[in-house]
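Pasting as-is:
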Amino acid sequence: MKHLIRFAFIALLVSPTAASPAIAGETSSPITPPNIVVIFIDDMGYADINPFGDNAYQTPNLNRMAAEGRKFTDFVVSSAVCSASRSALLTGCYHRRIGISGALGPSSNIGINADETTLAEVCKSKGYATAIFGKWHLGHHPKFLPTQHGFDHFYGLPYSNDMWPLHPSNIVRKQKDPSAKGPWPPLPLLEGTKVVNHDVQPADQELLTKTLTERAVGFIRENSDKPFFLYLPHPMVHVPLYASKEFQGKSGAGIFGDVVMEVDWSVGQILDCLDEIKQSENTLVIFTSDNGPWLSYGEHGGSATPLREGKGTMFEGGYRVPTLMRWKGRIPADTTCDQLASTIDVLPTVASIIGAELPTHKIDGLDIRSLMLDEDAKSPRDYFYCYYGGGELQAVRSDRFKLVLPHQYRTLDGRSGGTGGMPADYSSAKIGQSLFDLDSDVSESTDVSDLFPDVVKELLAAAEVARADLGDKLSKRQGTGIREHGTLGPEDTRLEW
């Protein structure tokens, strides 16, 4: 039986139709609309921080966040890859619904559609100041950039930091053949819609975590007298890994440990700043990841133990991510929630908390305030659909069970990953229809279809509902509920650098 442990009861927030949130049963005036901070790590595995894993390095600030808030042990993303996952977080929709899949790169001419409503726009509708410092990855041309989608400020990278001529594999290629042309143009750094660094170098990457954190803390201080939404999507711990001089060698566990410790430091800076300006009791802080670890990079990748596989698959290690939430005085301290929830639930939950209207178009996220605040709350979600690739429905989740549908996937098949920043090659494997009882087998090792035929039947029926709505490449279904991604037209300005 899934449950929440070690906490005192706290009442739920009232309906999202209220002008501003209040605590149920409270007779005094409503509380000030809370600030929202979302810290989104790139490629951080389920076991990569102390609250979720037995690590060779320390994450004291994330330990503090867990002690002062709630740990979510069954928190999942829409898809185990960058752009798809980020689109889902910011729109409250399965990435499949809004036409974003994979990881958009420098040659892409698509992005998030202007008709979608982002979390930033939801917050803006209630007068919030909004900012993003970090990796965007939802289209790099001006019409797709954050300042066109509800953010007042943007400073960071348009896509992943490995889409770069200086990726180790590109350097090795050039060493073997000096005339070889790499697949990537120079990596730009943007502010707003302008390129402020046309050719990011290793020294720049070393300072990314520190600089983005300083920007974030500055934004918090500048807006301490008004509600704000801060989105801090760190480019780390995505390869190639870089840490500032202060953290190089600090962990004693290699560059990966150094980078995680600097991310932990960043979290501490945010929490300390909120404490200093006396906004901790009026700020919801969410820490999570876009997908699981990139296992092929071995010592430069993280760990999803005890989960199966990692990034690039919809096994639990690919899309179940370490998640912490802190809201002093609202979320009970030192507690755990093991109910199914997702990043797609963040938008409707924030809308409920701040009293904002939901988008008029269909979204897939649900209000999970009860899972944040209540004692015996159960997940409001009946099913979660696991899409990957160009629209393959690879699994269907309920709170306890997961029906994996026949598909092909990548795996190291028990082999170690690469060393020195170079990846090992994946093998290709196939899995047939399998039912896993995640309450007793989170590693997805034993097919229990024969023991639970009614569950198989139920989840197959749910899969048919998903296929009718969102399609399925594997069964060649189109789906009636898919909306178009944004497309760069001939009249649109292109980002040049």
